[in-house]
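Now produce a polypeptide, keeping tokens residue-aligned:
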Amino acid sequence: METTKKEKKFDAVKMMRDIRDIISSETQNMSFDELKVYIKQKLAENKTKPL
């Protein structure tokens, strides 16, 4: 029995890793208070409510 490999049009794992790397590089030297401000700003930009 052969398996066929499909060509992915969208790779969710790669996207998640890329986003995580960007966030990590932006926040790597932030204090906890700076990180809280960063998160609040990002949520406000996207009009998202925290859980």
Remarks:
- The chain has a mean pLDDT of 89.
